Structure formats: structure tokens, C-alpha cells
TrEMBL record:
PANTHER family, sorted: BLL7967 PROTEIN, IRON-REGULATED INNER MEMBRANE PROTEIN-RELATED
Tagged with keyword Transcription regulation: no
InterPro entries with a match to the protein in the record: PepSY-ass_TM
Name this protein carries in UniProt: PepSY-associated TM helix
Keywords: Membrane, Transmembrane, Transmembrane helix
Top-rank lineage group of the source organism: Bacteria
TM region positions: 12-31, 132-153, 180-200, 323-349
Lineage, uppermost ranks: Bacteria, Pseudomonadati, Pseudomonadota, Alphaproteobacteria, Sphingomonadales
Length: 359
């Protein structure tokens, strides 16, 4: 137990602040729509699901812009009344009203707080390398929950729940850390496991293997091959939208993207009523040269492992279950922020004192 105690303390003292940053940024992102509705014009507009006849001219006009042609359009949804444009420069973007009028543009992620916060939480502002580091931090978090539970068991009779330490002394902080940690442990474990699965594909494949082998999932999620050529303009957006809605009449159109590389397909994402993923995993691919349907991924017929994987993000980010679940996951994020910050503070407090370990 002494070894577990040393590992828990040293690891917490070294990466606790990183976990606190991840917790704080994730908590803010869970309430992103609320503060965007307060500060961005038309973000609070009522969402209207438009049919193909009304939407096709808007999509055509946006993609035909010779100066600011987007690479993709993320459509408005219930609770957020703006479409979002993405560009090949991933730091750039724009919000447009549901009629296609530009509300605001940005050329750098630093111009929009929600954009750099997302990058901070998911990628630690470091791209793919940040994904790996954040995923490893999630695995470390799982270790903290397990070892913390073992260490708390010895002192369970002194349990006293507090949101904040009684005093900012090392002893009071450590006691608060143990007791708050054990209360938040189930939610923290859920956050760490889902976060690690999203950031580290090998971890995801390992945990999903009992439900579906990777060889079973990969083929059904692969985009179709054999496209007839590069993008030919003008694209028949009305035909594409009509085909998508005819194939999934009850689904909500969520995203349209131009080919990511020459010869790639046009991609349409839809969300069926029973899907938890906010932007849906029902995907239709269209040939860029002919605008014909080239392939379909029905989210409701995916292998069980893929359907479980689809739950990771909505559960982790509080995108399902309404206000109640968002409140629960907010508590998880706040607990992680407090625990991480206080772990670092307590570990380094009085580090130069010879009696540090007994204080």
C-alpha cells in the first residue's frame, strides 16, 4: 500500500495540473451552446428543418463562393440556430444564419474561444501528438481512480464530504482530496474511459473486442471506392439532398462535405431519431463527378462494437440526456479540476521541508 501511495502522490503531483486543464476546458465546452447564444448574433434563432427545395439553393451558393468556398457545412440544430462552415485551413471557420448569410468569420482559432478551447481539450493545442498525450492522461486518470479508491478504504471511517477543503493546509487538502475523489469516482471513471477510447484507437479496439472484432467493424465503416473522377461543378446539390432524404426520411441533415482529397467522395452525414451522436453516424457518400449515390452507412445496422463506440462522445460531452446529464458531467469536470489543482498544490506545498511527508 505504501508503494501505491507513493505512485498516486507523485503521479498526481506531476500531471494533476494537466488533468485540471482538461477538466476545466471540458466543463466549459459542455455549456458552449448557452454562451454562444448569448454572444453571437442569431445563435439563439429557432431551428427550422428545411426541405431540399429550400436548402439546395443555400448550399449551392455557399459552395460556389469563389473566394470563401467552405470544405464543409455543419447545419444548425435544436438549441443552436447557426450553421458552421469549415475550410481546408482547419483553424478558419464561419457562422452563417439558416438563410446562408454570414454572421462572423475567423481565420485563426485564437479568434474564437470555443474553437481554441476545443483544441485545448481534445488535442492539447498540439495536434495528433496532443491526442496521444491526452489519451495517456485519461489512462492515468483511470489509475488514479483505482489507486485512490484503495487508499481511501483505509480512512473510510473519517469520511466527510466537502466541496472545498476546510483549510488550505496540506493535511486538510489531502483529506478533502480523498473524500471528494471517492464521491466523484464513478463519474471520473466514465470520463476517463470514454476520453481514452476516443483519443487512443488501440484502447478502443481492445475494449470493444468482446462485442465486435476490428475486422468486423472496419469494412462497414470504410468509404466506397471506385469514384469516377474529381469534383465536377456545378454539383447537383438538389439531387444529393433529395436522395439523402428519400433514403432516410426521418433523419435530420447534419453535415455536407466536399471531397477531402482528389477523387474522394462528397460526404453527407445525417442523424436518425434514435442516434445519440449529435451529428449522426448515418453517412451517404456521393460520386464527385456524377453526384450519384456511391455508398451508405446506416448507423442503426452497424456491428455492436461500432454502435457502442458511437456512444463515447455523447456520453463524455453531455450531449445526451438533456440538462440532467449535462449537469452530472459538469460535476465530473469540476471535480477533476479541483482534484487535479489541489493535488499539485498539496504535493508541492512545503516540498523543501524535511518534515514534508508528515505534515
Amino acid at each position: 500500500m505504501r508503494t501505491i501511495n507513493l505512485l498516486h502522490r507523485w503521479a498526481g503531483g506531476l500531471i494533476g495540473l494537466l488533468l485540471a486543464v482538461i477538466g476545466a476546458s471540458g466543463t466549459l465546452l459542455m455549456h458552449q451552446d448557452a454562451w454562444l447564444r448569448a454572444i453571437v448574433p442569431h445563435a439563439a434563432d429557432t431551428f427550422v428543418q428545411q426541405d431540399s427545395a429550400r436548402l439546395a439553393p443555400i448550399v449551392t451558393r455557399l459552395f460556389a463562393d469563389p473566394v470563401n468556398r467552405p470544405s464543409g457545412i455543419l447545419f444548425a440544430r435544436e438549441g443552436f440556430g447557426l450553421d458552421r462552415l469549415s475550410y481546408t485551413n482547419r483553424d478558419a471557420g464561419a457562422y452563417v444564419g439558416q438563410a446562408g448569410n454570414v454572421v462572423t468569420r475567423w481565420s485563426s482559432k485564437w479568434e474564437r474561444p470555443e474553437v481554441w478551447l476545443f483544441d485545448l481539450h481534445h488535442h492539447l493545442l498540439a495536434g495528433p501528438a496532443g491526442d496521444i498525450v491526452a489519451g495517456i492522461a485519461g489512462l492515468a486518470g483511470i489509475g488514479f481512480v483505482v489507486t485512490g479508491g484503495l487508499l481511501w478504504w483505509r480512512t473510510r471511517r473519517t469520511f466527510a464530504f466537502r466541496l472545498w477543503p476546510r483549510r488550505l493546509s496540506r493535511a486538510a487538502i489531502l483529506r478533502h482530496h480523498r473524500d471528494l475523489g471517492i464521491v466523484a469516482a464513478p463519474l471520473l471513471l466514465l470520463s476517463f474511459v470514454t476520453g481514452a477510447m476516443m483519443n487512443l484507437p488501440p484502447v478502443e479496439r481492445l475494449l470493444l473486442r468482446p462485442f465486435s472484432a476490428p475486422a468486423e467493424i472496419a469494412p462497414v465503416q470504410a468509404r466506397p471506392k471506385g469514384m469516377s473522377g474529381s469534383l465536377v461543378t456545378p454539383v447537383d446539390w438538389r439531387g444529393i439532398l433529395d436522395t439523402a432524404h428519400a433514403r432516410f426520411p426521418d433523419a435530420e441533415l447534419r453535415w455536407i462535405g466536399l471531397p477531402a482529397e482528389p477523387g474522394g467522395p462528397i460526404k453527407v452525414r445525417m442523424r436518425q431519431p434514435s442516434e445519440w451522436t449529435p451529428n449522426g453516424l448515418t453517412i451517404l457518400w456521393f460520386d464527385p463527378a456524377s453526384s450519384r449515390l456511391a455508398g451508405v452507412q446506416d448507423a442503426l445496422t452497424l456491428p455492436k462494437g461500432a454502435r457502442i463506440a458511437a456512444l463515447e462522445y455523447p456520453v463524455h460531452a453531455g450531449k445526451v440526456g438533456g440538462l440532467a446529464w449535462r449537469f452530472v458531467m459538469t460535476l465530473s469536470g469540476l471535480a477533476l479540476t479541483i482534484l487535479g489543482t489541489m493535488a499539485v498544490y498539496a504535493f508541492w506545498l512545503g516540498r523543501g521541508s524535511p518534515n514534508f511527508s508528515r505534515r
